[in-house]
Design brief:
With 332 residues, the chain is mainly alpha-helical. It has twelve helices and three strands.
Length: 332
């Protein structure tokens, strides 16, 4: 209804209204100012070093996971196939926001171009959605492994794993493009200051001088598909896993289930806990600091912890690292 009325009004604009629209478009902002993190100026250097180290650990740790899975044939299974894609997604997810944040802290510059801001929104949404779908695929993999172990290799075959990843990429891309295209149609003619360290979609909508009803409606609908529904699927998967463990109470079975699911549960708790706290229980408009800090948690801290969670608690990963180091040490 809104798009039809907009088209109708545009076709029958009077010359005066057309001139006003042209002036509005000319006065649209060409850049945004990112206020960054709520930290004292004199402590910028300390936080810059800390965040730089965290980002480097994120990149190197996740790339190490991808390398180990690629080189060790023992890790060519469904679980590690999903883990390699999750590691790549985490590196990309952090790289969307962290380099710009670090550059702004180092140069004391707060500006980001309009095109750069839109690109940041698009890729941030894309990799955020992809993270959600991959975590869901991994939960299903654990469900099949524990609840249907005799049929695991039959169900979680290469074709199904490839299909789940492809569907995740397509849905994530569609979601990100939809939000970005709807954002492009909005006007930003007033304040261009974003109280954040990156171009957050909800923060941008508050700055827009246009009607954002359609954008907010799409956020609710798409959010239910890419966040709420996958989270419910994960809960259902672990509900079945818990029921299976209870039906066959044995110390060995419980330890095996915890060893295979513990890492994934930790990552899911960190990821969805931060998102639920940020988007389902938002703070008031006058207290934005909490939102910024929680955003930092799931954009930088969670991807950094994933290599530790999946590697230090995983005997297969540690064994693969030992094998590769041994081959490198004794190779001529």
């Amino acid at each position: 209804m809104i798009s039809h009325s907009f088209t109708f009004s545009f076709l029958f604009l009077s010359p005066a209204k057309e001139n006003n629209m042209r002036r509005d478009n000319q006065s649209s902002v060409s850049e945004f100012l990112l206020l960054g993190l709520p930290i004292w100026t004199e402590k910028q250097g300390i936080y810059y070093t800390l965040f730089l180290i965290m980002y480097l650990i994120t990149v190197l740790g996740n790339l190490l996971i991808i390398l180990l899975i690629r080189l060790d044939s023992h890790l060519h299974t469904a679980m590690y196939f999903f883990l390699s894609h999750l590691a790549f997604t985490d590196v990309s997810f952090s790289s969307v926001t962290a380099p710009k944040m670090l550059m702004n802290m180092q140069t004391q510059s707060q500006s980001i171009s309009y095109a750069g801001c839109l690109s940041q929104v698009c890729f941030f949404l894309f990799f955020g959605c992809l993270d959600s779908f991959l975590l869901t695929s991994m939960a299903y993999d654990r469900y099949v492994a524990i609840c249907h172990p005799p049929r695991y290799t039959t169900i979680m075959n290469q074709d199904l794993c490839f299909l789940l990843v492809m569907v995740s990429w397509v849905l994530s891309c569609t979601s990100a493009l939809l939000h970005t295209l709807l954002l492009v149609r909005l006007s930003f003619c007033g304040d261009n200051t974003l109280p954040h360290f990156f171009c957050d979609l909800s923060t941008l909508l508050k700055l827009s001088s246009s009607d954002t009803t359609v954008n907010e409606l799409v956020i609710l609908i798409v959010g239910a598909v890419v966040i709420t529904l996958p989270f419910i699927c994960i809960l259902v998967s672990y509900g079945h896993i818990g029921a299976t463990i209870i039906r066959v109470p044995s110390t060995k079975g419980i330890c095996k289930a915890l060893s295979t699911c513990g890492s994934h549960i930790s990552v899911v708790s960190l990821y969805y806990g931060a998102i639920i706290g940020l988007y389902f229980f938002p703070s008031s408009s006058t207290s934005n600091d909490k939102d910024v800090i929680v955003s930092l948690l799931y954009t930088l801290v969670t991807p950094m912890l994933n290599p530790f969670i999946y590697s230090l608690r995983n005997q297969d990963m540690k064994g693969a690292l030992g094998n590769i180091l041994s081959r490198g040490k004794f190779s001529p």
